[in-house]
């Protein structure tokens, strides 16, 4: 097991109606607040009014920036940075999903920096200071509500890039499972896939003697698998929505990778897809993850067989561990298909015209992945396997 520091400051406020405390949780950080949100779902659901009322009750001066798109764009981030600087904003409140939260995080960093915010994504600058931010989460998926990372797309070249800093972790995240009832089935399923991918990225490690975190990963995966069909078939099932929502946070708050080194190759390979094709991140992962598994499983057949057995109840065949490992990969792919996700590029109507370009872009700063290092040709082969 690796040495580690586990430092996750995000205060989680979980349960029905908890959005009503957003005013009192926010005002602690100052009276000038930027309310950041997406394309309108929070207005349709009535959440916007509840949030604004709660903020106004505390005498908060609310500035607004809506319009965050899925796969958030750096142009809106730049607008947000200017707004914060011009109005001396003290605190950013993100109401929405991963895209809104990531956009808010980038604004929070950019607001305390004199140069262009994209510098953080290219590694040209490192975060020294940033505005504090809080979250009211409306979709369990990205785990950005308590992660230290942000992922933003630059329209100039369609680069989707990430960076992380511990200061980007939100101060608080309000998680009310009822707020997720309005999610379309496709977004629910993409969220389920993304949180499973966050665990799988951590699970497939070269680190030995990580039994506790192996088991925590497996338990969280099993909980998600056990509740996924229920939330799709019964969108207003509170208990199942609650299990999924908490799993989404646990999947990505860094507890599950304590003592281990995660892979993250599949995420990098997927980011090229959503950068160019604007595909939903979770749907892109449903395509890339099984292909990645097929490409790398021989690197540690025992670990893949353990995954098949403990997560999917595949009986271990001691005479043919490879068959056990492959059965686990097949179950994973079948599951993604069963919740309505595409599992091939063809399903998503994506052809092979950009394979070379995406493989090149994905590896231009060096090989991807830690479980198995992937160079340009490996990434290209994984796109081929995903066809
Ligand atoms: O924009 P609105 O109108 O709010 O609609 C959104 C959006 O169209 C809709 N939605 C959200 N909550 C809803 C709802 N519709 C009805 N009812 C609700 N309660 O769902 C759509 C998708 O929203 P988005 O925020 O894009 O989803 P998600 O949370 O999956 O975020 C995806 C982004 O997060 C990044 C991804 O790359 C992607 O850009 N990630 C961020 C990570 C991080 N910061 O730690 C890690 C992840 O691996 C991921 O890469
Ligand atoms: Zn993800």
TrEMBL record:
Looking at the record, the residues that make up the Alcohol dehydrogenase iron-type/glycerol dehydrogenase GldA domain are 10-177
Give the SUPFAM superfamilies listed for this entry.
Answer: Dehydroquinate synthase-like (SSF56796)
Keyword annotations: Oxidoreductase
Q: Which residues form the Fe-containing alcohol dehydrogenase-like C-terminal domain?
A: 188-384
The superkingdom of the source organism is: Bacteria
Q: Which InterPro entries match?
A: ADH_Fe/GldA, ADH_Fe_C, ADH_Fe_CS, BDH-like
Name of the protein this chain belongs to: Alcohol dehydrogenase YqhD (Iron-dependent ADH family)
Source species: Aquibacillus albus
């Amino acid at each position: 097991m690796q040495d580690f520091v586990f430092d996750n400051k995000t205060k989680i406020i979980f349960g029905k109606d908890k959005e009503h405390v957003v005013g009192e949780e926010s005002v602690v950080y100052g009276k000038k607040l930027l309310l950041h949100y997406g394309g309108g779902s929070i207005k349709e659901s009535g959440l916007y009014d509840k949030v604004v009322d709660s903020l106004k009750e505390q005498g908060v001066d609310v500035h607004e920036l809506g319009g965050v798109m899925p796969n958030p764009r750096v142009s809106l981030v730049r607008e947000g940075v200017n707004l914060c600087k011009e109005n001396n904003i003290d605190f950013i409140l993100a109401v929405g999903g991963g895209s809104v939260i990531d956009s808010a995080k980038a604004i929070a960093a950019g607001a305390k920096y004199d140069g262009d915010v994209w510098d953080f994504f290219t590694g040209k600058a490192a975060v020294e200071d940033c505005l504090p931010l809080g979250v009211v989460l409306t979709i369990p998926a990205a785990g950005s509500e308590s992660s230290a990372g942000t992922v933003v797309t630059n329209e100039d070249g369609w680069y989707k890039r990430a960076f992380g800093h511990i200061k980007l972790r939100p101060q608080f995240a309000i998680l009310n499972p009822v707020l997720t009832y309005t999610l379309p089935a496709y977004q629910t399923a993409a969220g389920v896939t993304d949180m499973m991918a966050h665990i799988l990225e951590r699970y497939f490690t070269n680190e030995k003697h990580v039994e506790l975190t192996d088991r925590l990963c497996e338990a969280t995966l099993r909980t998600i698998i056990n509740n996924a069909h229920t939330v799709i078939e019964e969108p207003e099932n509170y208990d199942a929505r609650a299990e999924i929502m908490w799993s989404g946070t646990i999947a990505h708050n860094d507890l599950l990778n304590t003592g281990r080194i995660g892979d993250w190759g599949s995420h990098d390979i997927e980011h090229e897809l959503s950068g160019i094709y604007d595909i939903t991140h979770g749907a892109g992962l449903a395509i890339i993850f099984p292909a990645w598994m097929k490409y790398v499983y021989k690197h540690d057949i025992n670990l893949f067989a353990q995954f098949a057995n403990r997560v999917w109840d595949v009986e271990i065949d001691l005479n043919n561990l490879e068959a056990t490992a492959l059965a686990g990969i097949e179950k994973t792919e079948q599951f993604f298909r069963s919740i309505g996700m595409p599992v091939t590029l063809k399903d998503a109507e994506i052809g092979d015209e950009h394979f070379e370009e995406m493989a090149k872009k994905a590896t231009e700063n060096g090989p991807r992945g830690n479980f198995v290092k992937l160079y340009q040709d490996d990434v290209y082969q994984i796109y081929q396997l995903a066809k």
